Amino acid sequence: MEENQGVKLLGFWVSPYVLRVKWALKLKGIEYEYIEEDVFNKSPLLLKLNPVKGQVPVLVHDGKPIPESIVILEYIDEVWKHSPLLPQDPYERANSRFWAKFAAEKLQAYAWEALCSRGEDHERAIKASMEALEKMEKELNGKKFFGGDKIGFVDLVAGFISYQLPVYEEIVSMKILDSSKFPAITNWINNFLNHPLIKEELPPKHKMLAYFSNRRNVILVQNSSNK
Amino acid sequence: MADEVIVLDHEYSPPANRVIIALKEKGVAFVSKQEDLPNKKSSLLLEMNPVHKQIPVLIHNGKPVCESLIIVEYIDEVWNDKSPLLPTDPHDRAHSKFWADYVDKKIYTLGRAVLTTKGETQAAAMKELISSLKILDAELGDKPYFGGKTFGITDIAFIPFYSRFYTLEKFGNLSMNEECPKLVAWGERCLQRESVSTTMRNQYETYDFMLELRKKLGVE
After folding, report:
1. Cα(A220)–Cα(A211) distance, rounded to whole angstroms?
2. Is residue B141 a contact partner of residue B182, using CB atoms and an 8 Å limit?
3. pLDDT(A225) > 90
4. Across the interface, do A71 and B91 touch by the CB < 8 Å criterion?
5. Of B117, B96, B83, the residue nearest B219 (C-alpha)
């Protein structure tokens, strides 16, 4: 198939931004070459393909690089039109884009803050995370996935909630994913993690615990020396 | 059946400006409702954007669409008979969205820091902002618009910020024509478009507005 000519993905094993792209490629059955990058020691290739931000993921298709996970997801959906990630109707598309942006920019940031802070900042971040989850709980409204019966755009972007947030909770002994407060989200997490294509493509939990514990310690030290 | 299009708007809000410019480019009839910000938010705004409680909101036949660049894409998809705001080729589309996102995240965040702080904090933000603007200057290069020959989503994302160039010059004691000459030429080119010139306040009015805003926020 002409479309499949040379699809490469530059990534980092634990990055949720990379994982959403891997999931999208898998859902669409697109074959690709994966190139693991060390984001703490960036290769000349990565810096050449993403000169503006130097970040993963970068998708390379027919020799042309595309950075930014959400931009990549939309690109994949436009080039490989089967198994659509976004709905067809413009209003529904705008709604999906809104919730994907919300999950990626608000919830993800608050959760990270909750992991990498102490005291009042930490409490504030937990509260903000839960308020954000409440909004997503309402949006889910008893559906199996944000995309309806099938995994869609919002599910892929919000997917970090299912496997990464529990790791953060364990590291700092905090509770954000309260199943009594968020029954729909809890159900969604279950459906998402048990999806045959998703469960094959998750970073190993013990490695994530080690990685994020380490990151938390480094950031806490950095922040206290900056004060 | 005629479309009913309402925009919850504010003349000095760059995200709101983007929506108005996009509607005008498409020749869509709409009603603008100015919100009394930063003083108070209307009940309509709170109802239509309960998650963020922010403008702009496009209300199309009673249904709200939020987040300026999401609104611009929506406008492009619904009124797709003329003036495309995004290219057709998927790679070019991705390119436009990447730079629109860069403008939204980098430029506006740094811009807000410069406009609402003083002293060393402001100076540091200004330095980073000018660096980022130079990256945009290089990206534009010799093209008439960011999308190439056609005025599009990246231009729409960035052009409202052009009214703030004079303010940056006054705050940073610099010349934008020296720092980013291509962006200045591009800004003037965009102002030739009726959609832009009838939407944006000029640089001096914007400077006055910023000074007032700083007083209201207790910065000065």
Report:
1. 14
2. yes
3. no
4. no
5. B117
- Inter-chain residue contact A91 with B90, CB threshold 8 Å: no
- Under 8 Å CB pairs connecting chains A and B tally to 54
Q: What is the pLDDT of residues B108-124, one digit of tens each?
A: 999 999 989 999 999 99
Q: What is d(CA A128, CA A118) in angstroms, rounded to the nearest whole number?
A: 15
Give how far Cα A94 sits from Cα of A215, B63, B66, B73, Å: 35, 11, 8, 8
Residue A12's CB: how many other CB atoms inside 10 A? Answer: 18
* ipTM for this prediction: 0.95
Q: What percent of chain A has pLDDT over 90?
A: 95
Which chain B residue shows the shortest CA-CA distance from A64?
B91
Give the predicted TM-score (pTM) of the model.
0.95
Beta strands in B3-161 (DSSP E): 5-9, 31-34, 57-60, 63-66
- The CA R_g of chain A, rounded to the nearest whole Å, is 18
Q: Best residue in B97, B107, B132, B140 to probe A by mutation, most A CBs within 10 Å?
A: B97
Choose the mutation target among A68, A80, A91 for the interface with B, i.e. most B CBs under 10 Å: A91
Q: Are B115 and B108 in contact (CB under 8 A)?
A: no
Cβ proximity of A103 and A158 under 8 Å: yes
Alpha-carbon distance A75 to nearest alpha carbon in chain B (angstroms): 6
Assign B1 a pLDDT band (cuts: 50, 70, 90): low
Strands B31-34 and B5-9: parallel
> Above 70 in pLDDT, residue A4?
no
- What's the pLDDT score for residue A227? 60
pLDDT tens-digit series, residues A112-152:
999 999 999 999 999 999 999 999 999 999 899 999 999 99
Q: Report the alpha-carbon distance of residue B79 to residue B26 in Å, rounded.
A: 7
Task: Give the whole-number percent of chain B exceeding pLDDT 70.
Answer: 100
Out of A52, A67, A97, closest to residue B70 by CB:
A97
Q: What is the structure's pLDDT at A1?
A: 43
Lookup: tokens for B218? 């207790």
Q: Is there a cis peptide before residue B87, judged by omega within 30 degrees of 0?
A: no
Phi/psi at A197 (nearest 5 deg)? -80, -30
Write out chain B residues lying below 8 Å of A101, CB-based. Answer: 67, 70
Contact B60 A67 (CB under 8 A): no
